[in-house]
Write a structure and sequence with these properties.
two-stranded antiparallel ribbon, 341 residues, 7-stranded mixed beta sheet, Arc Repressor Mutant, subunit A, disordered N terminus
């Protein structure tokens, strides 16, 4: 691709759009925008936030065409309407993560577009993630532990229990995992991302997700745990967005944490603990831990132990322990989660 264009399009507008979501230096993000929006669409996006009437007054288009273009951009995942105003105010995707998650689920996305996203994740994302980890106070996402029996001295908050989140939800939907959809590096389940409340409303309105009940959501979570997928959500106490079920090979955050030590995901408040008198040294937990947090106590390899500084508190090791020798213990205060009281 030349500086002048991608598929014959002048890229200046798309570079401006990329800069708006923190991707000023990206070479690939402008290409992605150019596949989502023609030049008129790009000019509309650069006028946001605005109502359709505001836009129509600044661009020589009929009001009906402005509305139609905004609706198409909504379906593509780059425009978000707010019903808090009348008429609705439209805004762009706020950052790279929202841009990634929304546009990949665009129902008419060509394979070329999905491939380009994966090229971005492999070539540009690691450096961007490293920079973000150095300048942000808290990671964008955090791990939620599997729902298991905790030791008596611990307590779990509603906002960090996947099943309490589901039980308390007003609306639920499920979407395909955007990371596995583009990376295609494993055969784990694809329809696994549970959208909660506002996120469910959004994905149902776009037609990119399927409305589900609480029983089906619980089943998706249980299957994810059996497959060894890690529950992840936004790093704040109120869960109004998603519960992703992440693998260590395709995910935005897991591979760069595991291989590169880049912390763009926070651990849960818990840590695994192995009771030596119950451990039989079967080694199952070693295979289940992606973070290298479980080791042998000595060269005889008859007992396992947890390396506290590496444990992310996901609880996957406990799920398949045949002797029920592993428990999660609370190691961080509730204030560790932003917004928790």
């Amino acid at each position: 691709m030349t500086h002048e264009g991608y598929h014959g399009v002048n890229m200046k507008l798309y570079k401006e759009l990329s800069a708006r979501i923190g991707l000023k230096d990206s070479k690939i993000a402008p290409q992605l925008f150019s596949m989502l929006a023609d030049e008129t669409d790009a000019r509309i996006l650069l006028l946001l936030p605005a109502t359709a009437e505001d836009i129509q007054g600044k661009i020589k288009l009929k009001y009906e065409e402005v509305e139609e273009r905004l609706h198409e951009l909504f379906l593509k995942g780059v425009v978000f309407p707010s019903t808090r105003t009348e008429p609705p105010t439209y805004r762009m995707c706020r950052d790279m993560v929202q841009f990634h998650d929304a546009t990949i689920l665009w129902k008419d996305a060509p394979q070329e577009f999905l491939n380009l996203w994966q090229e971005f994740m492999e070539k540009e994302w690691p450096a961007i993630a490293k920079r973000l980890s150095q300048v942000t106070e808290k990671p964008h996402t955090r791990i939620i532990p599997v729902d298991i029996t905790l030791k008596a001295r611990t307590h779990i908050l509603d906002g960090e229990s996947v099943r309490e989140i589901i039980n308390n939800a007003r609306n639920l939907a499920v979407t395909q995992c955007t990371c596995r959809l583009t990376a295609r590096k494993c055969d784990h389940s694809l329809e696994t991302c549970i959208q909660v409340n506002r996120a469910a409303d959004y994905t149902i309105a776009r037609g990119t997700g399927r409305k589900i009940g609480k029983e089906e959501a619980m089943g998706i979570l249980s299957q994810a745990e059996r497959e060894g997928l890690i529950h992840v959500t936004l790093n704040r106490y109120d869960v109004e967005h998603f519960i992703c079920n992440c693998c260590p090979c395709c995910c935005q955050t897991m591979p760069i944490l595991i291989k590169g030590g880049i912390h763009v995901i926070a651990p849960s408040r818990f840590r695994a603990e192995i009771e030596p008198e119950l451990c039989t040294g079967c080694g199952t937990c070693h295979e289940r831990c992606y973070f290298g947090a479980i080791s042998w106590t000595d060269e005889t390899e008859t007992k396992s132990t947890v390396l506290a500084d590496k444990c992310m508190g996901c609880g996957l090791c406990q799920v398949t322990c045949p002797e029920d020798a592993i428990h999660l213990v609370e190691t961080r205060p509730k204030e560790f989660i932003p917004g928790a009281e």
